[in-house]
Amino acid sequence: MDKMDTAVLNALAEKPFTPERVKQILTQLQKQIKATQEKDAQGVKALQAELSELQQTSERIFEAVGKGILPLDELLQQHSRRLQTRRQEVLAEIASHKRRADMPAIGPRQVKLFRKALTGNVCCRNKKGHFC
Q1: Which end of the chain has the least Cβ crowding within 10 Å, N or C?
Q2: Hey, how many other C-beta atoms are within 10 angstroms of the C-beta on 18?
Q3: pLDDT at residue 131, rounded to an integer
Q4: What's the angle, vertex CA 98, arms to CA 97 and CA 104, rounded to 5?
């Protein structure tokens, strides 16, 4: 029975996960990622515009305080903190978009590793000898 189980699982691991099929799956995934990256690029552009506006607003506030036009009261400090917090959020969002954009190309090595991971999950056994 054990030989039969192994043969069936090996067939299941090999048939649907041929190198050609895995490459096709990964290529489709890469196309979807590229479409997402294009959308992300538009998002980054909008975030950069918001970041620029936040920086200009902060600079105007600091200039007005420096010239004595605005008093440095609690309300102004709270507003300045909110601007700084939003600036940090925008920078984090931009960094997140840029990390997603760094997708490696899909070559034979990626196909082999992905295929190995897929087939390994089908053919593995746990410590008690049961199939995972």
Answers
A1: N
A2: 11
A3: 45
A4: 115
